[in-house]
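fold-stage: in
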Amino acid sequence: YGSLYFRDALYGLSSTFVMSLYLSLAIIISAFTILVLQFKKDKHNIIGQTSAAGWLVLIAFVALQFISYSIWSQSVARNYSFSKTTFDSSAIVVNNQIADRIKSYFNVLNAFRGLYASTPSVSQGEFDRYIQTLDLPKNYPGVRSIFYVSLVPTNQLNRLISERRSDTSLYPQGNPDFDIRLRSSLDTHYILTYSNNTTLTPGIDFTSVPSRRGTYDKALSEQRAISSGTVKFNLNPDLPTLTGFFLTIPVANEKTAQNNVGFVTVGFNYTDFFSQNFNSDKLPAGLNIAVTDKQDNSEVFRSSSSTEHQNAPFHKQFDLPVANKSWNVKIAAPHNY
């Protein structure tokens, strides 16, 4: 281990006391040197020629080695126990930190659900102003986008187009270019209507994207917040593809309390979500954290530490629920944690 650190006051030593391994080796070498010198002085009767003082010195050196080894063993055991206790506490902190952050995003979804339920309709301007009050960068770091998806029967698509083009609540000129894009042949459509992310093209019919349609269908049937699991963002081929996930919840307004009018969705890409929520300044130092999406067993995050989980002396794992999905969180630390 290189050195012996004594942490316990029972040893009568300060917590900064260090006994070098090389000093221990020097004591051993000195003891054997005395024996060699005695042998050289008289090879015929080494035992008899050795003085009482010499034997006492030799016995003292040997006893010192046993004592040093005993203290070293106790120190190693105590250090391991101390490190494990610290690691266990840190692992729980990290897991709770991720769980609390996920919970805060569900609170955002429920807040939007309340907004829609309290009014006959929510305009684009009202939707945008409500997002501004949330102060996303400060209070909800890692959010890529918040958007509203309208649930529209085929025979109501033209009405939606007309309403969107004439909505001047956010832009004085309205939205003259709004149109249905990637329209599916299904009878019901999930149309991207409002978004705070300019890279998302309004009017996209998500029922034409199987990974999106399945999530919205499930949220609608279960009437609760649903996680998409890992998906690829950016339907625009000119933009780089990002992997992430989104959370969505069905909403109804005051006029249609018994019928949903659409969904509010919060989207994240994994890179921003983990780097902004769990960077080195917000995590206990020295930990390696790996997060896996249990749906497809894909690793969605690994901290910058080089410690491998399977080879680490300290390791824990948790299953973290994310709505209807779950993540496996693995936390590990090296010997000297």
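fold-stage: in (second)
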Amino acid sequence: SLPEQTMDTAPAGTRALLRMDVPAVRRSIFYQKLVVEAGRDSGHRALVERCGFDPLDQLEDLVIFVAGDSAELERTGVIGRGPFEHERVAECLRQAAAESESTLERTEVEELPAVKIGRGEGVMAFIGRRGLAWGQRETVVSVIRAVRGEGGRASEDELLNRLYNTIGRDREVVIVSHIPEPWIPALRQLAQSRGEDVARMAEPFFATKAIGLGARVSVGLAIGALFSMRDAESAEILTRTLRAELETLMAQPIINMSPIGPALRRINVNQSGVDVNIAFDLHQERVENLFSLAERFGVTGGGPGAPPPPPGPLVGPGGTFSPTSPTPPASL
């Protein structure tokens, strides 16, 4: 079975990881407004209609990780936790594969039951009754070995593990990631292409070694961001820059008097050694006010008049799988 600690489920070499409390996200105002009311759940609804049940009801925790060296992120994997009904899930996949003229084969990975869809190396392996891993075979093997304690785990990365344990407490969505040094020139160039003001504001962030983001979304919105900087001086510069930008925004009457004003006033920026912590918490009523403001300006793209987009392909670590397309995928 999967270890209780998320960082013990992902393999060593993980450079970025996202964990999502799926039921909490699905009952949040963000999911309802940005996905359901905006008609962006058409693929999910088609899957429920095809399978006769909702597979997401069986998914409690979703983990997506990316592994590789410091510059090249070569492997992507998905780990799921929940009371999975293996036979129903496999049958659902079989129906989807048949409709797309793809193939599904029962197989084993590290002596665990698995399914292989398409012609590539993508597999989904069931780990006990409450776990699954999806990705290229090599990636799934690394997850299974990490779970069994036979291979390295992401928790052995001291920096990433510290960020996860610090920022992930009582959060329903958590992201932790290294910022590889070779990425910095490209990120700096991107910021400069957006204009002088963006480049100026972005520059202090380029001294970030790793970042952790955590959010509670089921009721209201609570967000924490933890930046681990190269040194204390870089942390001090970032803290000073963020506080100055907030003061500048709050000095503008149109922002200060709008629904955005109370949100900005609740943002706290603090420094502790090489860490910069940003946190704010909004009550449900404030979040609803912000959505009303966004809808007034047509930002969310939702509303009863918005036509739902056509069902899109399912993109996974093993490739792309379109449940409605007659063209078979190269791999899943």
